[in-house]
Amino acid sequence: YKSREIERRSLDVDGLKRSFLEWLVYSVGKDARAATRRDWFHTVALAVRDRLVDRWMDTTRTYYQQDAKRVYYLSLEFLIGRLLTNSLANLGITDQCRQALDRIGLNLDDVVEAEPDAALGNGGLGRLAACFLDSMASEALPGYGYGIRYEFGLFEQRFEHGWQVEYPEQWLQFGNPWEFPRPEVLYPVQFYGRVEEFRDSVGERAYRWVDAERVLAMAYDTPVVGYGGDTINTLRLWSARATRDFNFGHFNDGAYMKAVEQKVLTENLSRVLYPNDATEGGKELRLKQEYFFTSASLQDILRRYLQHHSNFDSLPDKAAIQLNDTHPAIGIAELMRLLVDQHGVVWDKAWDITRATFSYTNHTLLPEALEAWPVRMMERVLPRHMQIIYEINAKFLNRSKARAAGDNGRLSRLSLIDERGDRRVRMGNLAFLGSHKVNGVSALHTELMKQTVFADFHAEFPERINNKTNGITPRRWLHQANQPLAALITSRIGNGWIKDLSQISALAEKADDLVFREEFRRAKRKNKKRLAAYIARQTGVDVQVDSLFDVQVKRMHEYKRQLLNILQAIALYNEMRDNPTVSWVPVTKIFAGKAAPSYHMAKLIIKLINDVAKVVNHDPSVHDNLKIVLLPNYNVTAAEIIMPAADLSEQISTAGMEASGTGNMKLALNGALTIGTLDGANVEIREHVGDDNIFIFGLTAEEVNDLRASGGFNPREVIASNPSLKRALDMISTGVFSPDDPHRYHPILQALTDGGDHFLVTADFSDYCQAQQAAMDLYRDQEEWTRKAILNTANMGWFSSDRTIMEYATEIWDVHPVKPEHPA
Ligand code: 26Y
After folding, report:
1. 743 CA from centroid of ligand 1 (Å)
2. Ligand 1: which residue has its CA nearest to atom 10?
3. Where does the chain cross the membrane (predicted)?
4. Which residues are CB-contacts of 36 (< 8 A; sequence separation ≥ 6)?
5. Can you tell me the distance from the alpha carbon of 130 to that of 235, in angstroms, rounded to the nearest whole number?
6. Catalytic residue from among 475, 479, 560, 627
């Protein structure tokens, strides 16, 4: 038994190999000859998991014994992607594992490919949460992620005749070796019912929530391995279970089948991730998901707190709860309910505790993305919470400065209830009011929060808004995804950068070193070859490895302006055909991204890109100097192949609309030059990499604001005065790219003209084309291009999510690193 214990922890090649063979037989139940690639993935994952359990328990025990202050990151999304490569790298056993598999006649890279991509998120917000988990563990911070264990992650995207079609993403189909089910960690969560008033033991008015429906939240834990493997934190995801009434009920014939149906319906709560990432749908199931995971998480947090404490006075000293956008903002009313109704804390004290415990991150200024639940729905689904929200609101409005000043306009804007039209609960206002700190995700975004959506709140609470510019984890996005470049960097400056990305600045002096440049180019070329092979496999298109890889990968959105990019592609296509004798810089335009299934305009843009690609890629007159590809099913795994291979990074949102962007950081860190507007974190990227090493174009946020306010912008005039834009649009409108349906793109043309071009595609077109020309010209000079690419990589150290997370830790959470104690 003892030797088996040691075997399970052994990190050397022989020990790993013996573990693999044993796991394959005794847990996967296969013989080496019959094992599939998936069997091997499960085998290796289970054996690797063995190697982290001890340290996981040490970490958890240390936090408990020291009663350390923990941070709880509540997020409806965690876009974690695959975990095998990440676990191996963070444990530092990649090479041993590779060799052990070699000895069995297997290739680690093939085994890795059998892991499904855990896509429990839509885009930036979900991936940020995943980067933060990595950084909290790597910085030894006592941090927990709390979310939902969706059975179906973000849909799988395929193109059928160029149109996006959605398929279910069944990541759990073959089991998940990383998760530990905790059937004993089970909390009741209620919905519907009504509120009863009564007198408590001292004769005070009190309330109880009765006749409610009950669902159970069951925990599944996933270990989060920090770099070096010393700290191993926990991601706890909740799954909906019908109550035990079902298991122990006895039913007559008809009632039995009904009860089974009811059980299935109840458990639908955690079935599927909502695929919208900007339009608030107002769907009841979504509200229930939000409350479900928030309530379970808060109950769990309070249970943990009460292991060491007998009243709630020091909750804010022991727990910091971060709200990832407003999705868990109902937690503010829920904590009030738990404290006041269940634990008998008086209101004012409960409110102080709540505010001192919560903080809120805003990720968007888009009005259509701000959550606002109809009062009628909230009253029905969460009647006690609706009361509590009214109470919070009444007390706040009574004391606010606006009332003192007699400013009713301001008062109604501050209200938690939007009284216009059907009455709605403004979740952003609730999150703001119930938090001691509120942050934006880039300097510009935070500034705009103060000036726009939260201007009135900012006047009331001038200290509350602060900035935390996003970051990305260098482990996954450089060390793991870009091994050629990572090895090159380490050969010159050592491997300290993996843990402390600021060290990467030491590369700057290598930008003038011709040998280093050559090696940097060689690493990039290797990555481009890998991407070219992937493109060929996914789309059947052959691209030139030495062409300029111009990459725009992100969700499909009008504000992100994939349309601007494809219009420029059409213009470039025309120029190439008009001037066949010119020696053109070969360009490969690479797009990838999913559209929300109900977002028709975004889906039409996908079809347009595919239609344009078909025409351009088959036109011999451009001599392969231009290729356009739209890769299907963009996800974390695809991003790991794309980011390292990019030359040019498209960050071209309408200024003022992209809160931060994080793909921009991944691309720049991997040595891509940015072509972008002064939006989101692009502003800070420019400050760090230097104005000479980035292509900035277009209207600024201020200019966009003025232009829209003045009403003085006429897209038809702009189009008429720009022949290449006019020609591109005419080609679309006459069906050059859609001969089977010439009117297909009418809605797009309409939006750009009569629609007023809200996203200012036409307004920025000419400046964008000039910036593209500058990029192509520079690309001819490979030495100069490489020099700038190196300076991008070297100057991106500040954008590590370790830096971001330490800012949260010191300026918002007041949590500190805790080194796990390992028993002898
Ligand atoms: C309300 C619901 C439909 C909803 C669901 C998901 C609304 C928004 C979202 C997701 C938003 C999101 O991903 N925002 C992105 O967050 C990133 C991390 O801060 C930013 O970098 C990026 O600019 C922003 O669009």
Report:
1. 33
2. 277
3. none
4. 30, 114
5. 10
6. 560
Q: How many domains does the chain have?
A: 2
DSSP bridge partners of 417 = 425
pLDDT tens digit string along 516-549? 999 999 999 999 999 999 999 999 999 999 999 9
Q: Is the pLDDT of residue 408 over 60?
A: yes
Q: Are 91 and 51 in contact (CB under 8 A)?
A: yes
Residue 246 pLDDT more than 80? Answer: no
Let me know whether 572 and 716 are in one domain. Answer: yes
Q: Answer yes or no: do 383 and 402 share one domain.
A: yes
Please report the atom of ligand 1 found closest to the CA of residue 470.
19
If one residue of 73, 77, 283, 325 were mutated to test the ligand 1 pocket, choosing by the most ligand atoms within 8 A of its CB, it would be 325
* Same structural domain, 484 and 611: yes
Q: Any catalytic annotation for residue 555? A: yes
Going by C-alpha positions, the residue among 596, 576, 679, 674 that lies closest to residue 275 is: 596
CA–CA distance, 555 with 561 (Å, rounded to integer): 10
Q: Is 25 in the pocket of ligand 1 (CB under 6 A)?
A: no
* Options 355, 510, 554, 788, the catalytic residue: 554
* pLDDT greater than 90 at residue 130: yes
Same domain, 619 and 652: yes
Nearest CA to 789 out of 523, 458, 534 is that of: 523
| CA dist 803 → 115, 205, 806 (Å) | 30, 48, 5
User: What token pair was written down for 646?
Assistant: 């990019």
Whether residues 365 and 395 fall in one domain: yes
Task: Give the 3-state DSSP-derived string for 282-328, with helices as H, strands as E and coil as C.
Answer: CCHHHHHHHHHHHHHHHHHHHHHHHCCCCCCCCHHHHEEEEEECCCC
Does residue 364 share a domain with residue 302? Answer: yes
Across 710-799, where does the E strand assignment appear? none
CB of 662 within 6 A of ligand 1: the answer is yes
Domain presence at residue 50 = no
CB 658 near ligand 1, within 6 Å: yes
Q: What pLDDT, in 10s, does the model give residues 609-666?
A: 999 999 999 999 998 999 999 999 999 999 999 999 999 999 999 999 999 999 999 9
Q: Which of 135, 330, 363, 808 to mutate to test the pocket of ligand 1 (most atoms within 8 A of CB)?
A: 363
Instruction: State the DSSP H helix or E strand holding residue 807, giving kind and residue range, or none if neither.
Output: helix 801-808
Residue 94 lies in a domain: no
CATH code of 395's domain: 3.40.50.2000
Average pLDDT over residues 7-34: 92
Residue 93 lies in a domain: no
The yes/no answer to whether this complex scores an ipTM above 0.90 is yes
Would you call 78 exposed, middle or buried from its count of C-beta atoms within 10 A (0-12, 13-18, 19+)? buried
Q: Residue 598 sits in which domain range?
A: 480-798
Q: What separation in Å is there between the alpha carbon of 362 and the centre of ligand 1?
A: 9
CA 607 to CA 627: how far, in whole Å? 16
Tokens of 463: 């200290």
Residue closest to 322 by CA, chosen among 361, 265, 273 = 361
In a domain, 36, yes or no: no
Rg (CA), the chain: 27
Chain segment 47-56, per-residue pLDDT in tens: 999 999 999 9
pLDDT band at 4 (very low <50, low <70, confident <90, very high): low
Residues 296, 421 within the same domain: yes
